[in-house]
Structures are given as structure tokens and as C-alpha cells.
Amino acid sequence: IGTNWGLTKTYPLCRIVPLDQPIFPISRIEENRLEAETMSNLNCAVIVLISVGILGASVVNCPAQESEIIWLEAESFQTTGGWVNDPQFVDIMGSPYLLANGVDEPVEDAVTRINVDTDGEYQLWVRCKDWLPTHSPGRFEIRIDGKKSATIFGLSDDDQWKWVDGGRFELDSGEVEIRLHDLTGWWGRCDAVILS
After folding, report:
1. How many CA atoms lie within 13 A of 157 on its CB side?
2. Nearest-angstrom CA–CA distance, 195 and 175
3. pLDDT of 5-32, one tens digit each?
4. What is the three-class DSSP state of 98?
5. Three-point CA angle 177, 180, 183, nearest 5°
6. CB of 176 closer than 8 Å to CB of 142
7. E strand residue ranges, 10-109
8. Whether 16 contacts 50, CB under 8 Å
9. Backbone dihedral angles phi then psi of residue 92, each to the nearest 5 degrees
10. C-alpha to C-alpha distance for 147 and 107, rounded to whole angstroms
11. What's the rounded Cα separation, in Å, for the pair 93 and 58?
12. d(CA 134, CA 173)
């Protein structure tokens, strides 16, 4: 690999970047690291450690997972419905997110379908933001194969992007439909959905 490569961890995945290139955005990487440390269900399958030309490369195996980890960026949903792709926090988050832009009328669901390889119980995590915590106008649900999440998203004590526990879902292997279901029409914000 050479001496000009380093490792930057983003949880639950790892990536290798050249040391002489900027890591964009650093704030997103650090934020993901801190958030992932609090999410005990997300463990990486393999960590790659690379020293800067001194020790070479080595691989450390983490414990095997009982279920797979499914990471979905909201802006990559197959159909965004009435949700729009909003890039206003790219400098902070490293990617755009979906915004329910209905102005007092709930928007049409954003929908995607995924293939689940392993039957089992999956923990739902959603990265979202309550943009006005005094009123929480941007509320939404996640629906997985028609079942509503135990949590209403967009309700928080502060206006920070955060991972929110959405409860557990029993999933069979095969195709599964995931929906972002807007409840208010007032700019709900969803960045990512994880099933682990």
C-alpha cells in the first residue's frame, strides 16, 4: 500500500483514504464515530488496520453477526414521493437527506424495497432531525412491510442530527418494503435508515 495511505474509520464500515487528500467532511466522520459508539447493535465485521509504512497491514476479525446490517441512505430510496432531496447540510453531514416539503399537507411516502438475506429480529435506527424542538413540526413514521415504527421521528429536545431508536421488527428473508410516512407536511428530515 505504501506510506502515503492511512485509515479513517466510519462505523459500521471502514474505508481507506490517501493521507495527502482531504477527508471530506471531517465533521461527518467524527459525528458518525461518536454516534455509532452508542449503538451497540452496530459492530463492524472486519476492521482493517494500516500503519503508515511501519508495521504494514493486518486484519482483525470482529465477532460474527447474528443478523445482517442494512444501511439505507434516505436520498437513495427508489421513489421519493413528495419528499425532496435537500443538500443544505452536506458540509456538516457529508450527504444530502430527504425533506418532507408539504407546507401543512403530509406528502406522499418515500418508498424503497430491499432484499433481506437472513430471517430474524432487526433493530431500526433512523438518523433524523427535529428542526424546531419547541413545536416538533416535522414528524414522520417509518413503515416496514406495512407495520408502523414504535417511534414517531422528528421529536427531540434539541435541533441536532441524531440516531433515534425505532424499535424492533421481525423480518423474514426476501423482499421488504420500507416507507418514510410524513405526518405533518412541515419539513420532516430523514438522512438514513438502518436495520441491524
Report:
1. 0
2. 14
3. 333 333 343 333 343 444 334 344 444 4
4. strand
5. 135
6. no
7. 14-18, 46-50, 57-61, 70-73, 83-86, 97-101
8. yes
9. -95, -45
10. 19
11. 30
12. 41
Nearest one of 23, 180, 187 to 102, comparing CA atoms: 187
Cell numbers found for residue 176 = 421488504
**Do 128 and 153 form a contact (C-beta atoms < 8 A)?**
yes
Task: Look up cell 426476501; give the residue.
Answer: 174
CA distance 169 to 149: 8
Cell of 110: 418515500
Q: Are 100 and 139 in contact (CB under 8 A)?
A: no
Map residue 45 onto helix, strand or coil: coil
Does the pTM of the predicted model rise above 0.90?
Answer: no
Which residue in this structure is represented by grid cell 411516502? 109
Q: Kindly report the average pLDDT of the chain as a whole number.
A: 75
In degrees, rounded to 5, the angle at the alpha carbon of residue 132 between the alpha carbons of residues 127 and 137 is 85
- Please state, in angstroms and rounded to a whole number, the distance separating the CA atoms of residues 185 and 139: 8
